[in-house]
Amino acid sequence: MKKAIEGEHWYFVDETGDTTFYDRRGNLLIGQPGVSPILGLGFIETGDPHLMRQALARLHADIIADPYLQSFPSSADTGLAFHAKDDRPEVRHLVFNLIRTLDFKAQFVIARKIERVFRNSFGGQPQAFYDHLVSHLFTNVLHRHTRNHIYFAKRGSRSRQRPLLAAIKKGMAHFEEKWSVTVKTESVVLAQVPSDEPCLQVIDYMNWAVYRAFVAREMRYFRLVEDKVSLLVDLYDAARYPNNWYSRENPFDMEKASPL
Questions:
Q1: Residue 257 lies in a domain
Q2: Beta carbons of 106 and 230 less than 8 angstroms apart
Q3: How many domains does one find in the chain?
Q4: Is residue 253 a part of any domain in this protein?
Q5: Which residues pair with 44 in a beta bridge?
Q6: From the centroid of its chain, how far is CA 141?
Q7: Facing residues of 229 across strands?
Q8: Is position 254 within any domain?
Q9: 218: domain range?
């Protein structure tokens, strides 16, 4: 293992899809309208988030000041933060064009929602399912820099720093056991809303591009930003193992993956 680089490094993390498997009566909902067939977790990483924040702020100000874009009903939401699912196509085009110019790398873990795996591996507990993806996502990265800042997009009213940090430490412990090393880097986990942390808006857009590829088999958005993606793991695509780990050497394409 290489010696950790002295200095700070930033990770901005968000989810795509959902953890829903059942309704209140225990009926399986996967495949029903409004319920995602996947849960994904991704991050962008950078050594300097300040330039990214400034670039996003400039674009945000330009869009808010544009009379044509102001005329759309969704402009009020865009005025708070960029959100790929809700932004107008015209706004989405501008944001993706900006993202292509920013300096960052991205990684993703995608979990197909398989009921047997959910019950046997996670006891039917959505939080255990989610935290497993957190551990998987961070297993091989936090030894690289001495001080890591991890920002999660805050969901709902409860802060989840403590369980998320526990999930991250579990991933780190797996790395130490695998390589028989001791990692001495520091990590701080913070929850933030995307309107207050612009870099979370970037991972929202990156996640949306991945989601569209998996769920709609629509690769055009992913193609715009694929050079930013250093790793994408299609965790439960057993039919493609071990080629379900996509990297720069094995670029991701839904034509390579099993259908959902």
A1: no
A2: yes
A3: 1
A4: no
A5: 12, 106
A6: 15
A7: 106
A8: no
A9: 5-247
Tens digit of pLDDT for each residue in 80-136? 789 999 999 999 999 999 999 999 999 999 999 999 999 999 999 998 999 899 999
Q: What percent of the chain has pLDDT over 70?
A: 93
CA separation, residue 258 to residues 95, 112, 215 (Å):
30, 11, 12
The β-bridge partners of 126 are: none
Cβ count within 10 A of residue 1: 12
Question: Is 70 exceeded by the pLDDT of residue 201?
Answer: yes
Question: ∠67-90-63 over CA atoms, to 5°?
Answer: 40
H-only helix segments in the chain: 49-65, 67-70, 75-78, 89-99, 115-122, 126-138, 161-179, 199-216, 220-225
Residue 136 lies in a domain: yes
Handedness of CA 180, 185, 190, 194 (dihedral sign): negative
In CATH, what number is assigned to the domain containing residue 135?
Answer: 3.30.420
